[in-house]
């Protein structure tokens, strides 16, 4: 499993995955020593317990009176009890009942809890409320007393008693499963199956239950361990098999009477019981941690590699200067290669490209906010004379928020739903500006007015869920302004918003730049947003800068084929111009990090590719002080061609009869 | 509020619409509180002719996705009728629908949650075919042809959704919708979650399929640009009500409702000089955004944001009336071109 973060892992690395890597003998969660030992132990106990009559060295009631309370010996591997009976034989003969009884409890609890949860999740609020009220009553009952009462009525019938325990626990199982089932039912593939006319039973068994399997396994393993303990506890109290039939509870009770004169007696039974319960819990933990363990190798913030001191002095006209920045997965492929750009005071720079092109990684490395397992492996991020790429976590914290702030794509996720807006603003204001609570509140209101919120006092009192998306993004911008930063990094700030709201947020950002001299780096995939707000633009493809310069010349007279293609894919044609019948598009997807070709990384998808494109070449100057990374740029420009739309039907094989015809376009290596 | 008469087909003969929606009302929740709240969809009517694509545009909260759900039977309509090829399916359960009208299918917005990660593409595509009583071998053959028809290799049927990118998954979702050869497909923001270049690929694919198979699409989107690309006609929704409807060129190029003007002027174009001019025009217009104030229950829902609103707008809900070519719900539609 790769640790490629965010967009890189999401989109780009999917086309090369081998088709058969899914089904292994053991799920990944169990292929570590702890869980493996736990599974091994459980299997061993089950096997030995159920086959005990076949292999046990002594019958359970054979008394060896000469060897009472003996320690382990050749004749009695685990020693003997006060009547000289063999412990090994008795422990495993006794094991079958608690294992089976615990299984009964688990089966009954889940057999009731899961169907109820599925029904409640499917039938909606009213049914759910009725079932939930009933389970609440069940949960309010004192289960120990009920168990004892049941035993009083029907006598010591272990399996029935454990089944009753299962009924009592089913209420708790239902509560957990209901939440899971409800969230699974919100997935669109469930809706799609319902639209297809799949019956309720099949929707649940085919689509809902498999998605709940991990949670079910975790809960079942845990409950199994608990049930074994309860079963042993009941036997200990005398509500189990009567002497001379062996049981773990009685054997522990026996041993507790000999703690001083024969302490060993406690060890074999105690260890078997404890190990079995612990093994069940380890298994549950392993299943629960399945996701976390796959993706999280320990955070290793590698010491920044030794850099060759760059002789060139920092550009005096820039607030931020990025030089030859390279970001890599630790011991893995590069995600961003040799990216350079500068941000001048009071200017807005756009980083633009498809998902998987490294624009988010570039933006995050400016703040030292790279995900685990990813780090800056070369180049510099010069901020006011310091190299941010070489800062420690503590030093970076001094810069974040105070000098460089960030707003993200999902304003609702960036705000904590538990706290009021006032609380979330006042904390950073007090920390960054060293003012008292009252003054901080006044500053908070002032910041909200600055981001265009008219009724600041009402918004201060509200919680995030009471705000619309546009309002929440305004609050996030206010939050970013609390430390009076000089640079704001905006990662897709308007992608999640309606166009009308997007227009207002962009106007707000522009007003902030104009009024405060703030510099902004905007990450976006929308060239319309770039045209609206950016002074300079950096077009990225597969981790490289392919074209850069002032926004107007780059967008009005794009030199790189990739920029041309992005412009052609935009359906917003000029006013009065006719809508094309097909849009320009780029076949295939961005190649995954690690499989970037030598030479031009865009060659596999470019309409103008020739042999010369497969050897490396340097970036050329373009658009005044910008660059373009295309070896054929002049030829393409002189020929006056532009990226053309795929001819109608090129997406599809020509006719129904000729479905298996070869791919119509000659784009090398690019799968669609 | 009745809008379009049955749409004349190319031959000039009046045909039964592929999809006919009349006075659709959807309220969420139950009880007195829900009855007093404004409905999510408030008396919406439209037709889609065979082979026609109708764009349904609006901001979030305009009720456009709710209309899609109500058509598909995922949300029970409170009033109104939905007909597919003249057959009333309004009150039918999902199971009845699958037996009697197998020709209404859906493509959802989110390509990540719309495919079951634990089933192969083949299993996902075969499922609806098997429900239609098609044999296993034939169903698999059709599934394979289905993924090939959306530009993916046939062996994709043996793979899991996790092995495909967002754009490829959306193609698979389209293949799933089309594998039953439906007449009408609800496209619920099928390209909103995609990158621009991938969006263009998927839009081209949809245009190809529409032209080759004569499909009718209900294309739900928030971007007037993509609606103009794919649709012949458009319906502009605001707070569950139709503001304007008509040929897509008229609606997007010469809007007659102030809200449509707000939508068109807000969409950014990738040409800096033109965008600067559009921005200046939009800022001069001074239209606010949703949520700034409550509209009155009796008047036009757009009043709090409208630069043209007068007393009559707050008191009387404007009916849809023909302004030029486009039915428009605005008392002052004649003044809109001057904006």
TrEMBL record, chain A:
One GO cellular component term noted in the UniProt record for this chain: plasma membrane
Alphabetical list of InterPro entries matching this protein: AAA+_ATPase, ABC_Ni/Peptide_Import, ABC_transporter-like_ATP-bd, ABC_transporter-like_CS, MetI-like, MetI-like_sf, Oligopep_ABC_C, P-loop_NTPase
Keywords, in A-Z order: ATP-binding, Cell membrane, Membrane, Nucleotide-binding, Transmembrane, Transmembrane helix, Transport
Xref: PROSITE patterns: ABC_TM1 (PS50928), ABC_TRANSPORTER_1 (PS00211), ABC_TRANSPORTER_2 (PS50893)
Mode of membrane association: Multi-pass membrane protein; Peripheral membrane protein
Coiled coil (UniProt feature): none
Region (Disordered): 653-672
Any one biological process term the GO annotation gives: transmembrane transport
Residue intervals passing through the bilayer: 34-55, 99-121, 133-154, 160-178, 223-242, 262-284
Domain ABC transmembrane type-1: 95-284
Domain ABC transporter: 320-567
UniProt xrefs under SUPFAM superfamilies: MetI-like (SSF161098), P-loop containing nucleoside triphosphate hydrolases (SSF52540)
Localisation per UniProt entry: Cell membrane; Membrane
A Pfam family annotated for this UniProt entry: oligo_HPY
GO molecular function, one term: ATP hydrolysis activity
UniProt similarity note: Belongs to the binding-protein-dependent transport system permease family. Belongs to the ABC transporter superfamily.
NCBIfam families: oligo_HPY (TIGR01727)
Record's protein name: Dipeptide/oligopeptide/nickel ABC transporter permease/ATP-binding protein
Organism from which the protein derives: Modestobacter muralis
Automatic annotation (TrEMBL), chain B:
GO molecular function: ATP binding; ATP hydrolysis activity
Pfam families reported for this sequence: ABC_tran (PF00005), oligo_HPY (PF08352)
GO BP of this protein: peptide transport; transmembrane transport
Keyword terms: ATP-binding, Nucleotide-binding, Transport
Domain of life: Bacteria
Gene3D superfamilies referenced in this protein's UniProt entry, alphabetically: P-loop containing nucleotide triphosphate hydrolases
Signal peptide: none
InterPro entries: AAA+_ATPase, ABC_transp_ATP-bind, ABC_transporter-like_ATP-bd, ABC_transporter-like_CS, Oligopep_ABC_C, P-loop_NTPase
Keyword check for Transport: yes
Domain ABC transporter, residue spans: 19-264
Family matches, as NCBIfam families: oligo_HPY
Family, similarity comment: Belongs to the ABC transporter superfamily.
The protein, known as: ABC transporter ATP-binding protein
């Amino acid at each position: 499993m790769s640790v490629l973060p965010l967009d890189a892992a999401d989109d780009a690395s999917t086309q090369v995955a081998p088709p058969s890597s899914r089904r292994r003998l053991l799920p990944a969660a169990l292929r570590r020593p702890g869980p493996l030992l736990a599974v091994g132990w459980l299997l061993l106990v089950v096997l030995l317990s159920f086959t005990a009559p076949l292999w046990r060295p002594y019958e359970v009631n054979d008394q060896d009176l000469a060897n009472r309370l003996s320690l382990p010996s050749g004749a009695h591997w685990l020693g003997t009890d006060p009547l000289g009976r063999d412990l090994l034989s008795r422990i495993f003969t006794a094991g079958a009942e608690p294992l089976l009884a615990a299984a009964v409890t688990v089966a009954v609890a889940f057999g009731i809890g899961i169907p109820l949860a599925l029904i409640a999740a499917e039938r909606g609020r009213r049914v759910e409320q009725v079932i939930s009220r009933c389970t609440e009553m069940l949960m309010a009952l004192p289960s120990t007393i009920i168990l004892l009462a049941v035993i009083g009525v029907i006598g010591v019938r272990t399996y029935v008693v454990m089944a009753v325990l299962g009924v009592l626990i089913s209420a708790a199982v239902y509560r957990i499963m209901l939440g899971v089932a409800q969230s699974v039912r919100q997935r669109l593939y469930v809706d799609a199956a319902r639209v297809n006319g799949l019956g309720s039973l099949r929707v649940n068994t085919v689509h809902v239950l498999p998605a709940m399997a991990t949670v079910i396994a975790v809960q079942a393993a845990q409950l199994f361990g608990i049930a074994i303990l309860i079963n042993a506890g009941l036997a200990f109290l005398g509500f189990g098999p009567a002497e001379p039939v062996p049981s773990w509870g009685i054997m522990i009770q026996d041993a507790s009477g000999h703690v001083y004169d024969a302490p060993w007696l406690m060890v074999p039974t105690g260890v078997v019981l404890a190990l079995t319960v612990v093994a069940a819990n380890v298994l549950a933990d392993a299943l629960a941690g399945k996701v976390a363990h796959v993706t999280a190798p320990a955070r290793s913030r590698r010491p920044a590699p030794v850099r060759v001191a760059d002789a060139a002095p920092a550009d005096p006209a820039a607030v931020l200067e990025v030089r030859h920045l390279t970001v890599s997965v630790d011991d893995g492929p590069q995600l961003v290669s040799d990216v350079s750009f500068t941000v001048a005071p009071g200017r807005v720079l756009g980083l633009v490209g498809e998902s998987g092109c490294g624009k988010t990684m570039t933006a995050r490395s400016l703040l030292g906010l790279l995900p685990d397992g990813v780090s800056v492996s070369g180049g510099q991020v010069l901020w006011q004379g310091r190299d941010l790429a070489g800062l420690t976590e503590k030093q970076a914290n001094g810069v974040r928020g105070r000098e460089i702030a960030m707003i993200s794509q999902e304003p609702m996720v960036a705000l904590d739903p538990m706290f009021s807006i006032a609380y979330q603003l006042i904390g950073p204001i007090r920390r960054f500006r060293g003012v008292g609570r009252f003054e901080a509140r006044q500053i908070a209101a002032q910041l909200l007015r600055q981001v265009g919120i008219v009724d600041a006092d009402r918004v201060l009192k509200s919680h995030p869920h009471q705000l619309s998306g546009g309002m929440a993004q305004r609050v996030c911008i206010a939050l970013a302004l609390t430390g009076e930063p000089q640079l704001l990094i905006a990662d897709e700030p308007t992608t999640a918003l309606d166009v009308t709201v997007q227009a207002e947020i962009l106007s707000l950002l522009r007003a902030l730049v104009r009024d405060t001299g703030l510099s902004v780096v905007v990450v976006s995939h929308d060239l319309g947003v770039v045209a609206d707000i950016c002074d300079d633009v950096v077009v990225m493809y597969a981790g490289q800068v392919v074209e850069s310069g002032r926004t107007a010349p780059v967008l009005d007279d794009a030199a790189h084929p990739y920029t041309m293609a992005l412009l052609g894919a935009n359906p917003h044609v000029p006013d009065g111009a006719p809508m094309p019948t097909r849009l320009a598009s780029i076949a295939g997807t961005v190649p995954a990090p690690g499989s970037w070709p030598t030479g031009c990384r865009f060659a596999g998808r470019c309409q103008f590719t020739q042999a010369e494109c497969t050897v490396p070449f340097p970036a050329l100057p373009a658009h005044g002080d910008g660059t373009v990374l295309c070896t054929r740029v002049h030829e393409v420009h002189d020929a006056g061609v532009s990226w053309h739309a795929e001819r109608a039907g090129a997406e599809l094989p020509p006719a129904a009869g000729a479905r298996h015809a070869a791919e119509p376009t000659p784009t090398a290596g690019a799968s669609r | 509020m009745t809008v379009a008469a049955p749409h004349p087909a190319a031959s000039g003969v009046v045909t039964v619409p592929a999809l006919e929606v009349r006075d659709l009302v959807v309220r969420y929740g139950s009880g007195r509180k829900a009855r007093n709240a404004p409905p999510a969809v408030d008396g919406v009517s439209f037709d889609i002719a065979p082979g026609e694509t109708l764009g349904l545009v609006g901001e979030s909260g305009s009720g456009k996705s709710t209309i899609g759900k109500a058509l598909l039977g995922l949300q029970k309509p409170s009033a109104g009728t939905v007909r597919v090829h003249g057959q009333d399916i309004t009150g039918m359960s999902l199971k009845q629908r699958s037996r009697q009208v197998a020709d209404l299918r859906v493509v959802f917005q989110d390509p990540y949650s719309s495919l079951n990660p634990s089933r192969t593409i083949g299993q996902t595509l075969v499922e609806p075919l098997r429900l239609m009583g098609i044999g296993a071998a034939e169903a698999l053959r059709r599934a394979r042809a289905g993924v090939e028809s959306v530009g993916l290799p046939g062996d994709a049927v043996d793979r899991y959704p996790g092995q495909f990118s967002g754009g490829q998954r959306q193609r698979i979702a389209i293949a799933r919708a089309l594998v039953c050869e439906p007449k009408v497909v609800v496209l619920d923001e099928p390209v909103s979650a995609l990158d621009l270049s991938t969006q263009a690929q998927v839009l081209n694919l949809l245009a190809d399929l529409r032209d080759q198979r004569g499909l009718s699409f209900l294309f739900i989107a928030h971007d007037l640009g993509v609606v103009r690309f794919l649709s012949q006609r458009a319906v502009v929704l605001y707070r569950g009500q139709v503001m304007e409807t008509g040929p897509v060129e008229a609606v997007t190029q010469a809007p007659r409702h102030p809200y449509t003007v707000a939508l068109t002027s807000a969409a950014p174009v990738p040409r800096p000089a033109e965008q600067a001019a559009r921005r200046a025009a939009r800022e001069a217009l001074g239209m606010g955004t949703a949520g700034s104030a409550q509209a009155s229950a009796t008047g036009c829902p757009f009043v709090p944001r409208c630069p043209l609103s007068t007393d009559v707008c707050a008191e009387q809900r404007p009916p849809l009336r023909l302004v030029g070519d486009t039915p428009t719900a605005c008392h002052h539609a004649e003044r809109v071109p001057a904006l």
